[in-house]
Structure formats: structure tokens, C-alpha cells
Amino acid sequence: xxxxxxxxxxxxxxxxxxxxxxxxxxxxxxxxxxxxxxxxxxxxxxxxxxxxxxxxxxxxxxxxxxxxxxxxxxxxxxxxxxxxxxxxxxxxxxxxxxxxxxxxxxxxxxxxxxxxxxxxxxxxxxxxxxxxxxxxxxxxxxxxxxxxxxxxxxxxxxxxxxxxxxxxxxxxxxxxxxxxxxxxxxxxxxxxxxxxxxxxxxxxxxxxxxxxxxxxxxxxxxxxxxxxxxxxxxxxxxxxxxxxxxxxxxxxxxxxxxxxxxxxxxxxxxxxxxxxxxxxxxxxxxxxxxxxxxxxxxxxxxxxxxxxxxxxxxxxxxxxxxxxxxxxxxxxxxxxxxxxxxxxxxxxxxxxxxxxxxxxxxxxxxxxxxxxxxxxxxxxxxxxxxxxxxxxxxxxxxxxxxxxxxxxxxxxxxxxxxxxxxxxxxxxxxxxxxxxxxxxxxxxxxxxxxxxxxxxxxxxxxxxxxxxxxxxxxxxxxxxxxxxxxxxxxxxxxxxxxxxxxxxx
Length: 505
Description:
Layout: H1 84-92, H2 100-109, E1 115-118, H3 125-137, E2 149-152, H4 156-172, E3 177-180, H5 186-195, E4 199-202, H6 204-212, E5 223-227, H7 229-234, H8 238-245, E6 253-258, H9 263-272, E7 277-280, E8 291-297, H10 303-311, E9 317-320, H11 324-337, E10 341-344, H12 350-362, E11 367-370, E12 385-388, H13 395-402, E13 412-418, H14 423-433, E14 438-441, H15 447-453, H16 469-480, H17 487-492, E15 495-496
Parallel strand pairs: 1-6, 1-7, 2-4, 2-5, 3-4, 3-15, 5-6, 8-13, 8-14, 9-11, 9-12, 10-11, 12-13
């Protein structure tokens, strides 16, 4: 398919803005106030903007008015103008009926239009942009260091998830993918780009590093996707994102997908999207009928014991805290109490993070204790409980943490532990999120806590989490063959992943 744009992009305003960082709190402590969000920058409206925008939802900007009517949604992938190989790959993966965001946007993005899509995590955004990107890139071959399509994401975990989700479809149309994120050798990343990759999935900081080294150019990129753009803005990546977008082909196609659309994302929409087709799957609250929201009022002195009993439940749970130190402290406490827990945060090496996620997904670890690094881009089947040990300080963080459960029609619960001095802030946060939670006063050992979360007393027998036997054997074989890796083996290591910006929790 021809990647040439069907709509005119006569001019774009190019400017760069910086966003403030984020704050956090500690386990069993009062959360400090988040710094105020930066004010909207001035300047004229987006070129190509027409008409009056509808009123904005609280905390979000008004969606742009689409000038060119959108093509009608489809109810089956077979109704789309896609290569036969992609349709066959969808069938092989057992995918036949598109999610709403896919059915609504794909007819338009396959035709080359820009897209602005809002949908909660688990709504199918990855295939919504991925199938269009692959279909329109199929049949082309990238020159060394010059990718043809780019997907920008905020975190390493989300980059890997996007790569894993798109890999079978990319193979079906003979497109090469490279994943460029923090935590792995930059030399191997450069080697993969030198070998030629049509599609690059990247975090902004590491991609900028490779460009600065001369290992990558973006002037041939005809299709650019920003996935979870709001988190990139929140993490302070806006300067890198705009600098990268200024380097891709100005007439190329841009797609922006996110679970929330706040004022920071508005800057990107006005500057880089031209007459986009707009689709919003969910209300800004991300309300899900299969998800229950519980606020548990706890006493500060009892919070640690309550948290431990919830962690000792039968079944897996993700527990969110605000700082790396708090995560490590709680993980050590749970292990000493007999709970199979593991920590996940930006201070861990990429190999550790990957191993921890694998252990959690397989059940080798039953409690994942994490900072917001795990709030997006991690999909775990049949996860029915998320616990905010430290209440989030922003309603978007709440929605994305909760998005780890009740995915794709499954049911789940989001539980937030709230001490007396946090109640007022939590009420405001829930109002901003558009959620009316069930509020319960609980204490450790009580029936109500067990009924809501499955909490039970831990064994009290300390446990140690070791690498699975298979992993140890593979590591041993790797050590024995170090220094004599075959060329074929080296070539297989094309999923390449660091920049100081990408190490944020």
C-alpha cells in the first residue's frame, strides 16, 4: 500500500516545550503534593483546525473537530483493505472481530489519515495502530539506519509489549522490527539498525541517543505513532518527542493513541496532526463495568499488617507504591513473612525487570510490588486484583494502575488503602476520575478485608525467590559459550533495548 498521505499537510507549527517532573510518596507515609502541571503554552491554533470545539471533559482538552468525514466502522477484519498475509495472520492468531477502537479507526488509518484515539488500557489500541502501520509499510525495504515507520512509547515494558503484539503480523508481511529502549547494549541496537529495520519501536531518550551517534535517521519515516502520549508528557519526554517528530517526513502519517487526553497532549495534536479522525472508546474516567473500585479506610498503625494479609491471598496481585525505596522495603517484608513477592521499578536492570515479569506471569511470584513503571504496558492474563498501597496523587495514575485488571472483558477489583489524613485527597481524586467507589472501614484479620480482597494471614516462614531451573540452565550455557557466540546467534538478538530518561520509575 502507498504510504503517501491522502490529506494535505500544508504547514505545521514547530516548537518545543518542557514539562515538569513527578513527585511521589513512601510506604506507610503521607504523600507529598504533586507539583502543579505546567500551564498551556500560548500561540496560534493548529493549522487546519476548523469550527468550534466541543466542551472539554474536566482535566482534558476538547477533541478537535474533524473536517473530512470519517469512513464508516467495520465489524470484521475481512472487511478491511489489508494484505492477505495480514488477514491470514489474524486468523492464525484467532482474531476475527475487531475491538471498537480498531473497527472505527482502521478504515481511515489504512487510507492514510491521521488519527487521534482514546481508549483505556486493554481496549485494543496496539492493533488499532499496528495493523495500519504494517499494512501501509508492507512491500518496502528499509535502507541501513533509515527506518520507514516509528512507534514511540514511554517505557521499556510497553515497548516490549508492543513488539511482542506486532511481531507475528510483521513476520507475515516480511517486515523487520527493532526495539530500541533502555537497559541493553546500545551497540547491539546500532547493529540492528545498520542491518535494516522497517519498523522501530522506541523510547524517546534512547532513540535520540542513537540519532546523535549517527546510527539512525528519521527522514524516511512515513508513519509515526505515539502510544500513551500523555505518560510521555508526564515523564518529561515532551522535548525529546517534539524533536523526534520534527525529523520525520513532514507529509507523513501520524497516529496518536492514549488512555487519557490532557492539555499536554493537546500540544502534540495541534502541532502534528492534520484533520485527524477522532475516536474515543471510553469516557475519560475509563469506567469498566467489570471492574470494582474499593477505598479501604485503614489506621496508619495497622496499614502494614493489612497490606501483608492482602498480599498473602490466594492468587496474584499487583501492589503499587510511590518510590523505589518503599517498593524494596515492602518486598523484603513480604518475603520475610512468607509471601512470594518481587520488586519492579526503574532502579532494576532490564534483565531483572524482564525476569520478574516473567515470574509473575507464570505464577512463580504471586505479588508484584511496583512503582508506576508497571502502570502501563504490562498485560497479565486473569489478574483480578490491583492494590494501591500508596494512593496515587493523580487520577490518571489511578486509571492506569487499575487498567492492569479487568482487561478485555475480564473482571477485577482495584483497592486503595487510605489513612485518615489521605481521605480528603482521595475523595477529590475519585471525583476527578469519575468513579464512585465502595468505601469500607477495615482492620487486619477482619471478615470485611477477607471478603473484599481475599486477605489471609501469611505463613510467617521466610521465602527466597530463585530463578527457575530452566533459566539457570540457559544462563549456565550462555556463560560457557561466552566469547564464541556464532554469527547466527548474534543476528537473532535484534530486539535491542537505555538512556537516563528511560530509567524513570
